[in-house]
Amino acid sequence: MDHLLTDTQRAWQLKAREFAETEIRPLSLARDQIAAPAETIDWEIIKKGSRLGIRTAAVPTEYGGHGIDFTTQALMIAEMAKADSAIAKSFSQSWKWSHLIVDNGNDEQKKRFFDAFVNDDTFVLGGGITEPNAGSDNRLPPADDPKSGLQLRATLDGDTWMLNGSKCYIANANIGKLIFAFTRTDPGMPVQEGTTIFAVPRGTPGLKVGKVFNKHGWRFYQNAELFFENVRVPDSNRLGALNGAHKKHDGKNSKFGDLEYAANALGICDAAIEMATAHGRTHRQAGKRLNEHQLFQLKLSEMHMQTEALRSFVMRIAAESDCTANISRKHNMLLMNFSTDSMQRVCYLNLAIHRSAAKGEISARAEKLVRDAIIWTHIAGDSVQRMKAVKALL
Ligand SMILES: Cc1cc2nc3c(=O)[nH]c(=O)nc-3n(C[C@H](O)[C@H](O)[C@H](O)COP(=O)(O)OP(=O)(O)OC[C@H]3O[C@@H](n4cnc5c(N)ncnc54)[C@H](O)[C@@H]3O)c2cc1C
């Protein structure tokens, strides 16, 4: 597909590839194996990527970023994920919330938030929707309980908003310098109509970080609890309309979500194929090279088939996102689901190839790819995403 790329897209892809090969890959396994979840983060790699423009790549040029398009974002995520899926996500998570600022911020907010973000190599963004009792219900609320979903309450007290409640599983919650908190401003309305977003800077009195979650995969990527105890936020930090958090379905943030995961899954698939191919060429089993065995060949061909189908789907949705203002999200959701299935199958086949060949010893990297791939089952409540896609197709 390289022949379809512009010179700019290709240049960013190659920059991400070089960064991934020379900087990310060498430290991937070592960071993954650190036992304490809050210590897996490596600020040097964030700073290096930032100096290359990767952290701020999705910020519009008028606000000091690079304004790369969705096709470039997908290409770069896949390149970085091939070296380490969790480190790739640590960069693209800030792209996701940059898109939210673009979609919902007014001119003053865009200038204020992007100025701080662009000029600090260690500035990462986070967004809190999920709560201990509200995960999937925020996206597919039960019809018989219109008040289900997130409960973090924001009430107007004088001229400031007061936030009380908690969030969990929030990416970058423990390290982010600005967190977008999804709050309930009208508890009498269903979650999709009574929710408002506030930008809460780190260090705001009453905002506390709880435990950092110990995950089986994506170990570099930080996920933590957040507690809000009388956290005061000025109305100038309200992003978008009152009760309007879930009303914007055609913005950049919404186009990016599923594409981001699928592009990352593509990088994982490429890594698995690279590993399996190298192993097949060098390892001998039953008197001949592994890749001379028909069973190995069938596995590798299936890995290629799944990966190339995923690549086509990712690039199609990326291109549509770039050239269509209001895309139908059903294909994005199907892409997310397809990427989960194909990547988990590809990683399983890679693991099987290594396990059978190495007589019980599992390659640490093959095993890491499987652990990272399993995260997809949880991140977006995969079955809920599937039900939402099907509802749009019925
Ligand atoms: C690595 C990681 C990063 C994350 N980052 C963030 C973040 O930055 N910000 C944030 O806000 N959240 C984040 N999350 C949370 C994530 O969005 C939630 O985990 C997700 O929405 C699912 O919610 P839950 O875990 O509460 O599971 P539940 O909603 O309890 O779902 C459990 C199971 O029940 C199924 N299920 C749920 N509802 C239905 C239904 N109606 N019908 C049939 N089946 C159903 C689900 O599909 C799933 O299999 C992250 C999670 C992970 C794992």
Span of the ends, CA to CA: 33 Å
Uncertain ranges:
none
CATH class of the largest domain: Mainly Alpha
Strand order of the largest sheet: 1-4-5-8
Q: What is the percentage of strand-forming residues?
A: 5-15%
Which H/E pattern describes the elements?
HHHHHEEEEEEEEHEEHHHHH
The biggest beta sheet is recorded as: 4 strands, mixed
CATH topology of the largest domain: Butyryl-CoA Dehydrogenase, subunit A, domain 3
Number of strands: 10
CATH architecture of the largest domain: Up-down Bundle
Q: Per the principal axes of the C-alpha atoms, what is the gross shape?
A: globular
Global structural class: alpha+beta
The total count of helices amounts to: 11
Work out the radius of gyration.
21 Å
Mean pLDDT: 94
Bound molecules: flavin-adenine dinucleotide
Outline:
With 394 residues, the protein is an alpha+beta fold.
How is this structure best described in words?
With 394 residues, this protein is of the alpha+beta class. It has 3 domains: 2-118, Acyl-CoA dehydrogenase/oxidase, N-terminal domain (Butyryl-Coa Dehydrogenase, subunit A, domain 1, Orthogonal Bundle), CATH 1.10.540; 125-239, Butyryl-CoA Dehydrogenase, subunit A, domain 2; 252-393, Up-down Bundle (Butyryl-CoA Dehydrogenase, subunit A, domain 3). Helices cover 50% and strands 15% of the residues. It is built from 11 helices and 10 strands. The chain has helices at residues 7-32, 43-51, 70-83, 85-104, 107-118, 252-282, 294-323, 329-357, 364-374, 376-379, 382-393, and strands at 125-128, 153-157, 160-171, 178-184, 195-201, 207-212, 223-234, 238-239, 284-285, 288-289. The strands form 3 sheets. A 4-stranded mixed sheet has the order 1-4-5-8, covered by helices on one side. A 4-stranded antiparallel sheet has the order 2-3-7-6, with no helix packed on it. A two-stranded antiparallel ribbon has the order 9-10. A hairpin with a 2-residue loop joins strand 2 (153-157) and strand 3 (160-171). Helix 4 (85-104) runs antiparallel to helix 6 (252-282). The longest helix is centred in the last third of the chain and has 31 residues, at 252-282. The radius of gyration is 21 Å and the shape is globular. The two termini are 33 Å apart. The model has no long low-confidence stretch (mean pLDDT 94). Bound molecules: flavin-adenine dinucleotide. Flavin-adenine dinucleotide is lined by residues 127-130, 135-136, 140, 169-171, 218, 223, 375, 378-379, 381, 383-384.
